[in-house]
Amino acid sequence: TKLNTYQPLTEQSAISMAVNVGIFEDGSLLTCEEIGDGNLNLVFHVVERDSGKGIIIKQALPYAKVVGESWPLTIERARIEAGALNLQRSFVGDLVPEVYHSDPSLAVTVMEDLSSLTIARAGLINGNKYPRLSDDIGTFLANTLYFTSDYALHPFRKKEYVKEFSNPELCKITEDLVFTDPFFNSETNEFEEELSGDVQQLWDDFTVKLEVAKLKKSFLTEGEALLHGDLHTGSIFVDDQHTKVIDPEFAFYGPIGFDIGQFIANLIFQVIASPGEKEPILHHIENTWNVFSATFSKHWKESGDAYTKVNGYLEYVLEKSFQDSIGFAGCECIRRTIGLAHVDDLESIEDKEQRLKAKRACLNLGKKLIVNRKHILSIEELLTLVRSYS
Ligand code: ADP
Ligand code: MG
Ligand code: MG
Ligand code: MG
What are the protein's UniProt keywords (predicted)? Predict the structure, then answer.
């Protein structure tokens, strides 16, 4: 049986698809398990019994399930995800999974099985430090952001990509859940009653709101580079030797600082929440920025565009990206604490007082990052500030 119109796969039809696209031979003994988190997408793990060889089939569902409700969400995001993985792979190689097959009408991406690795958020919570993490993510950021931007591309090509990766419905989720809802009394918010006073203070803070409005404006209007769009530690598989970035269904053209800031914020949750040693995580924050800026600068200097040779322009772009990263990190700190989608780094703190203390630190640090982003002049200054909240 070969599907040609969209329908959600089952474990059985996922097996048929794995055979039909030529990954396994007809007659081989295959097992299949659905392993996704189940809110937006199905993720099937198909394994050949004898060889142990596995593949992943990810399929977008035509709706999103959140807090018991469901709303329609375009399956176009599967085309965006497969397209972004392929484009990113041309710039970062093995830092993203290989796509074996994709089919936009069925909203599926058949890709490399990474089950031998661990999701970074889970591994970090368990106390692992992953020595390669910041080198690899710094490189991922520099290569994907530089090579998809106007600093590197012919303007016609770049505008083709802007069209190809126009992603209005997924962007709207970020616009609402990251930049708007947490800063107003919205139904999607979710927080402990004990935080009500802190949250009310945030909602009454017009300095914070004005600065978030400016950051949201950047997100809405600055099509600088192809972003991953959801670069938190749950979108990264790791072990001591490997780093693989998955799940770019939110990819679109936006400001370079957004991906950097989201990743840094998700490391900040570890610095604040983890009972273990904090310095290795702080080092990852510092090294992510340093590897990003050094690698981005290297690419820049190898480019041939007239303006890229103008003194001070590279420094301007890096400084703007640094300030934006800090501001976007601040938004992420706040929305993961009181918004709709929380993080296990904070939620898994069992002791309630400890958990509330960590969440208050995230809220206060988040505000500080948003409001003071132009006055934090170096990555060392950022680390000093983060340390003072941990
Ligand atoms: P969603 O967009 O629904 O968050 P993800 O792409 O993040 O989907 O995948 C959800 C989960 O499925 C991951 O946390 C991981 O456990 C599993 N998964 C996704 N891609 C792979 C892969 N290539 N190899 C192994 N497991 C994967
Ligand atoms: Mg099952
Ligand atoms: Mg995901
Ligand atoms: Mg996703």
Answer: Kinase, Transferase
